[in-house]
Amino acid sequence: MTRHLLSIDDLEVSDIEDIFTTAAEMHDVQKRSVKKLPALRGRTVINLFFEDSTRTRSSFEIAGKWLSADVINLSAKGSSASKGESLRDTVLTVTAMGIDGLVVRHGASGAAEQISRWVDVPVINAGDGTHEHPTQALLDGYTLTRRLGTLEGKHVAIVGDLTHSRVFRSNVKSLIKLGATVTVVAPPTLMPSGVADWSKEAGFATSYDLDTVLPEADAVMMLRVQRERMSGGFFPTAREYTVGYGLTRDRLSLLKPGTPILHPGPMNRGLEISADAADAIDSAVLDQVSAGVAVRMSVLYHLLTGEPQGNEGVGE
Amino acid sequence: MPAHQTSTPHDGSTGRVVLDAGDINRAVTRISHEILERNKGAEDLLLLGLHTRGVPLAERIAASIAKVEGTTVATGALDVTMYRDDLRTHPTRVASHTQVPAGGIDGKTVVLVDDVLYSGRTIRAALDALSDLGRPAVVRLAVLVDRGHRELPIRADHVGKNLPTARSERVSLRLVETDGEDEVRIVDSTGPTDGGEA
User: Which of A132, A260, B83, B119 can pair with B125 through a Cys bridge, CB separation 3.0 to 4.6 Å?
Assistant: First the structure.
């Protein structure tokens, strides 16, 4: 297993399978009355969040606590980072306290990898800019594996704001590793530049037409329109986006019966996903949240136990 | 560690056989009778196998009890990976499946079933794992082989075979369900072990 989890590229297929196997056991722990395992007793994990987050941070916090680790949340707001301290100084200060793991979210792509070169504890990327969000992709893959049995030969459509989405980038990599066929759908303005080369190299399809992709899909992953990352001009109106690329009530009928609908959250109801889709029987949104805790427990367990290793510096 | 030092596929032909299929069968039968005698019947019994080879052993004991008493005894599987005390010094293990009957373990007579009892550390971990699952009335321990060299104050209630061994030796226990044959061997491994020995 990798020392840091910075990107899905750090994981072999067998690593992903191991993470899923352990996650399945962690999932059972969630149903017990004593939701506590002693695996990380006496270890300290810091959630270092330079960007807003509710579910990822609380999910990592619960995951760490259920494994008996001490979890401390630090956010940029109200920390010395807002007083002008450099990222390196903040990270070195925090790790000098004697911690065993660092969960990092940062608005800059590559921040987690940069941090992993400065510290000698495992670093888990909880989202870096528009680069990657590997634990989200793992929990999505885990949720889909539970729903569909296997991802081998299944067709997954990823729809929405691809340009700004680290979830999409991590998911494409992990879904392909797990044997799925992937089609990504977005309006031309939200299709990332360079996607033509990447899709050819990695082996996934791109489309501008949601209505032709949906009937073919075994699973649909809707992405959030990230208005906070947009400087405007990506689509004329919200209404127009919904008509072209939202999972509306009408589009639900295009899906094969039982097709799971995923959304990494937070959802913009009425924009990229209708209430009918979000609350549909086949919606896996809440499954994703509960899987998130199990998968992050598994990731923390796999990265923070085992024989001590030296810092290999850069992940991959 | 006890449950993991037992066997790797390649040692099937080395060392000396100490228990063959017939011996293992008789040991399982005797353990079953002992459990019934001690418990005065099969009431409230729950046989919890420890991964990996304790799980099929628990099933065998249950089948043997069913033959004698004509009742089915609840069985389950217990994974102690998260409770081990060597998580920081051994390569990370993937968790196995813990399976407890729907009724839970509260008030039950839980018999932990393992293949080889050695340092006792796996059993220590299993007792911790049990206490997170509920509160059994009684916990007992049944093992197919006790090879000695305890590192903790733990003993088995039901033992298939006491095998005096040297620390340098390795006990290779193979079962049809997991390894394709029933056999217990003592393998001399004075050289560096293959990572099994704790």
Answer: B83
Q: Which of B89, B90, B98 sits opposite A25 (nearest CB)?
A: B98
Looking at domain A8-133+289-304, what is its CATH homologous superfamily? Aspartate/ornithine carbamoyltransferase (3.40.50.1370)
Q: How many residues does chain B have?
A: 198
Go through chain A and tell me how many residues it has: 316
Closest approach of A15 to chain B, Cα-based (Å): 10
Q: What is the pTM of this model?
A: 0.89
B132 touches chain A (CB under 8 A): yes
* pLDDT for residue A291: 97
Alpha-carbon distance B100 to B103, whole Å? 8
Statement: residue B9 has pLDDT above 80? no
Of B87, B98, B128, the CB nearest to A305: B87
CA distance A38 to A66: 8
Cβ <8 Å between A38 and B82: yes
Contact between chains at B83 and A67 (C-beta distance less than 8 A): no
CB of A299 within 8 A of CB of A124? yes
pLDDT < 70: residue spans in chain A: 78, 308-316
User: Å from B16 to nearest chain A CA?
Assistant: 33
ipTM of the complex: 0.80
